[in-house]
Amino acid sequence: MDVWSLVRGARCTTFETVWGSGGWRGALVTGEHPVVVASAWERHGVCGYDLTGQRLWQDRSRTNIEAVTALTGGRVVVTHLRRATRVLEAATGEEMRTLRGALKVIALTSDLTLAVGGGWCRLLDRSLDPLGSRISTGLNTVWFAASDGEHLVVDELGGEPLRILDSDGRERARMDENFRHILHDPVTNTWVAVQNSEAEHSLLRFSNEGEVLERRSRDLYVYDAATMRGGKTLILNTEEGVQVVNSADWSVQGLKAT
């Protein structure tokens, strides 16, 4: 596991953790004492580590872990195959609650989380209690999502159009393009998406009505992406290394492996 400092633009530590291929089974839970939570599919369960690599706890009670997702408040969500999704305290591994029916959990903002089930998604508040009714997503699972607090943008598996929704689930607009990641940029109050197909590698900026405001082609293939600093920063894992992108102007800073 590599941990990077965005302030210094360099790697600050590397250590061994439990791990399993497929899915995303690692997360950095920020706070006064950051914790790295990592897991494996079949063995070892889920573990918490401090930034020196010292293991703080290990929970082997359940296997078949599909994903680990960091939340605010020192919490981490562990998603299991055919078992209830669990919310753990990252510092101790103690189970805080379960989210039954949730197949995937997406952290949207410091106060909003999206629970994704079979054919539906639902906004949750900071305490992970439901906000409003379930939003129908048809047969496909929501893969990426972002929110500005008033609108929700969802992109589903299976080549379905990206949809821009009001908080009550009413559709405002849709975009028939394929995306790799989505975020809301609070500086420009626009949406930014990573387009990553065989024909097109680009960054896209669009409005609440689905109007494309800016598009910038890129030569690099993006393997994975993440949102940081409340949407102000986009992290891209590319074929030439990790890049830190300013969401407002798309300026790029590379991370140095030092």
Structural overview:
It is built from no helices and 26 strands. Strands 3-4-5-6 form a 4-stranded antiparallel β-sheet, with no helix packed on it. The protein is 0% helix and 54% strand. With 258 residues, the protein is mainly beta. It has a domain of 100 residues: Lipocalin (Beta Barrel). The mean pLDDT is 90.
According to CATH, what is the class of the domain at 1-100?
A: Mainly Beta
Strand order of the largest sheet: 3-4-5-6
- Spans of at least 5 consecutive residues whose pLDDT stays below 50 are none
Give the CATH architecture of the domain at 1-100. Answer: Beta Barrel
Radius of gyration: 18 Å
CATH topology of the domain at 1-100: Lipocalin
Profile the largest sheet.
4 strands, antiparallel
Q: Measure the end-to-end span.
A: 15 Å
Structural class category: mainly beta
How helix-rich are the residues, as a percent range?
under 10%
Mean pLDDT: 90
Can you tell me the overall shape? globular
Produce a short descriptive summary.
This protein is mostly beta strands.
Any descriptors?
Quinoprotein_ADH-like_sf, single chain, 258 residues, WD40/YVTN_repeat-like_dom_sf, four-stranded antiparallel beta sheet, mainly beta, Lipocalin
What secondary-structure arrangement, pairings included, does this model have?
Blueprint: E1 2-5, E2 10-14, E3 26-29, E4 35-39, E5 46-49, E6 55-59, E7 65-71, E8 75-80, E9 85-89, E10 95-99, E11 104-107, E12 113-117, E13 120-124, E14 130-136, E15 142-147, E16 151-156, E17 162-166, E18 171-175, E19 181-185, E20 190-196, E21 201-206, E22 212-217, E23 222-228, E24 233-238, E25 241-246, E26 252-254
Antiparallel strand pairs: 1-2, 3-4, 4-5, 5-6, 7-8, 8-9, 9-10, 11-12, 12-13, 13-14, 15-16, 16-17, 17-18, 19-20, 20-21, 21-22, 23-24, 24-25, 25-26
